[in-house]
Amino acid sequence: MPLLVVGSVAYDTISTPTETREMVIGGSAVHFSMAASFFAPVRLVGVVGEDWNEDHTSMLTARGIDMSGLEKKPGGKTFFWKGKYHSNMNDRDTLEVHLNVFGDFQPTLPDSFKRSDYVFLANGSPVTQMKVLEQVTSPKLVVADTMDLWIREQHDELLALLKRVDGLVLNDSEAKLLTGEENIVAAGKAVRQLGPKFVVVKKGEHGAMFFADHETYVLPAFPTADVVDPTGAGDSFAGGMMGYLAQEGKLDAETLKKAMAHGVLVASFNVEDFSLDRFRNLDKSEIDFRLTQYRKMLAF
Amino acid sequence: MPLLVVGSVAYDTISTPTETREMVIGGSAVHFSMAASFFAPVRLVGVVGEDWNEDHTSMLTARGIDMSGLEKKPGGKTFFWKGKYHSNMNDRDTLEVHLNVFGDFQPTLPDSFKRSDYVFLANGSPVTQMKVLEQVTSPKLVVADTMDLWIREQHDELLALLKRVDGLVLNDSEAKLLTGEENIVAAGKAVRQLGPKFVVVKKGEHGAMFFADHETYVLPAFPTADVVDPTGAGDSFAGGMMGYLAQEGKLDAETLKKAMAHGVLVASFNVEDFSLDRFRNLDKSEIDFRLTQYRKMLAF
User: Fold this and answer.
1) Which of A89, A186, A189 sits opposite B182 (nearest CB)?
2) Could you tell me which of A298, A242, A239 has the C-alpha nearest to residue A266?
3) I need a labelling partner for B180 at 20 to 30 A (CA). Which of A161, A181, B117, B143 fits?
C-alpha cells in the first residue's frame, strides 16, 4: 500500500573523525523514503531550491519513490545542514543550518497523493504537520516525528497534533523533555497519555522502545562496530518501520513488532556509510539475512 | 555446583530523590550472592568490622550462602559507602567512601572453598583477585569484574589477570577506558583480545553485550519504570548470570546466553527496592514469570 512522507530534503556537509563529505543528499524525507523503498512504494512531498541536482530525483525515482510531490522553488536554495561528529560517533555539533526554502515550506499534496493509507509526518513544525494531515483522505495510519525545538516552542500545537495521530516517534531525550519524566519507560508511557495509540522512543545505539496499551517492549540496536555516519539513522528507522507496515497492510501487535525490528535493521545499514551510500548498495536479501541473525541473537 | 565469590561486604547509606536509607547492607559480594542464591549454593569470602550485625550473616546463611569465609576484624569497621542518585536514577555522586577493613583485605579461602568449580572475582584490586585465583584448585570457570580505578592505577596487574580468567564483566565506560575504543562493540571485541574467552559489557538501563569468539550479541534490560535504587544492579546481574551457570553446570554458547538473560532479569528485580529488600521478598516463580515475558518481548 502506498506510503506518503512529508519532510525535509536537504544537502548535508558531514564531518566524522576520519572524513568529510560535502553537499551529500540528506533530509528526513529522503532517508525515510530510501529506507521504506525496500518494502513499499513511497510518495515524497518536500521542497528544494534551484541548486537541487535532478540526478538525485532520478536516483530516488528509480527506487520506486514517487517524486512528483517535490516542489522546486525558483531562486531558492535547498535546506543545508553542516555537522561534525565527535569521536564517539554519537554526539555531534551542528556547525551550520540554513533552512532556505524549507523555512516557509507549505506542503501541498498532489491530488494523487491525498488518498494515502500510510502517512509519515517527518520532523517539522506541528502546525505544518497538521496542515498535511488535513489534506489526507481517511488514512489507515498516521505517524509523526518531532524534535526538541517544537516541544519547546510550539508545545500547544504539538499537543493538538498528538491527539490526531496514531503514532509518535521521538528520541529518548525528547520524550523526557516532553513529559518531564526522567526514566525512559515512564516518559514513553506519559507520551502515550498525550494521545497517540503507540509511541516509539528511539535510543540511538541502544535501540528503540515501543509503548502501546498494555504493551511495553524494547528492541536493541543491531550491534555494529562499523559506524561511518549516523546521520539519518532515526529517519531510516522510521522508514523501515513504516515501509514494512505498508507492505504488510495490517496493524496488529505482532506486525507492529516486526515493523520495529525492520526499522532497527534498516537503520543499522544506514550508519555503515555516508548519506544514502549504503542503501544504494544494499540488497533486500542482506536485510533478510541480518533479520535472521537478529532473531537468533534475541532467542535463548 | 558451588559458586565462590570474593568481594566487598559493605554498609551503604543511599539517597534517592525521594528517600534516604542509612547503613543498609551492600557490597559487591553481597549483591552478587543474593542474586546467585536463587540458582545455586554460594560461598562468600569477605571481611567486615566489629560493627557488623550478625543478623545479616544469619539472613544470608538462610539463603543458602555459606558465610564461613566472612572474616570479622576485631576493632575494625565495615566498608562504608554513601551515595546520592541524581533525579534520572542513572547518575550518582559518591559522597563518602571509607574502605575500613576492606582496605587491606587479604582474602584467605577456607579449605572447603578451594575446590570451587565456579569463581567470581568481584570488583577489587587485580593483585588481590590474582591472589584469590592462586588459592583455587582447578576451577571450571573464573570470571572477574573490574573498575576504572584499577584500569588507571593497576593497568599491568589487570592485564596479567585478564590472561588468567575465562570471562570479564565490566561497564561500557570501563571497556572504552581500557581499550581506547569509543564504540561499545569495538571496545568489547578489543577487551576480548586482552585474554578472556568472553567479555560482558554492562550498559545499565540499556542491558548488556556479550563478546566471544565469532559471537557478539546484546540483550536489552527488562523495561521498568519502577527504579527505586540501582545500587548493586551490576553485581546482581553477575550473580544471576554466574548462579545460572553454576546451576546448569555447562558452558556452551546457548547456556551462556540463557545465563546472560537471567542476569538481566535478576538485576531488574534488584533495582525495584533498596539494598536487598526486593530479593528478600522475591520468589523464584517471579523470575520465571518475568523470563517468559522477556522471551515474548524479544520474539517477533
Assistant:
1) A89
2) A239
3) B143
ipTM: 0.92
Contact B242, B3 (CB under 8 A): yes
* Of the candidates A45, A35, A41, A44, the residue with the CA atom closest to the CA atom of residue A1: A41
Decide if B260 and A225 are in contact by the 8 Å CB cutoff. no
Q: Where are the alpha helices (DSSP H) in B114-211?
A: 126-133, 148-153, 155-162, 172-179, 184-192
Strand segments (E) across chain A:
3-6, 10-15, 20-26, 42-48, 65-72, 79-85, 92-98, 118-121, 141-145, 167-171, 198-202, 208-212, 215-219
Distance CA A162, CA A142 (A): 10
How many domains does chain A divide into? Answer: 1
Any idea what the CATH number is for the domain that residue A38 is in? 3.40.1190.20
Q: Chain B: which residues have CB within 8 Å of chain A?
A: 87-89, 182-186, 189, 203, 205-207, 209, 216-221, 223-225, 227, 254, 257-258, 260-261, 295, 297-300
What is the reported pLDDT for B25? 98
pLDDT in tens, A4-25: 999 999 999 999 999 999 999 9
Residue segments in chain A with a per-residue pLDDT below the cut of 50: none
Cβ-contact B218, A297 below 8 angstroms: yes
- Is 90 exceeded by the pLDDT of residue B297? yes
Alpha-carbon distance of A257 to A248, in angstroms, equals 12
Domain range holding B226? 3-297
- Which residue, among B108, B100, B42, has the nearest Cα to B71 in the 3D structure? B108
- CB pairs under 8 A, 24+ apart, for B176-182? B177/B148, B177/B151, B177/B152, B178/B151, B182/A87, B182/A88, B182/A89
- What chain B residue is nearest to A256 in terms of C-alpha separation? B300
Task: Determine contact, residues B268/B290, Cβ cutoff 8 Å.
Answer: yes
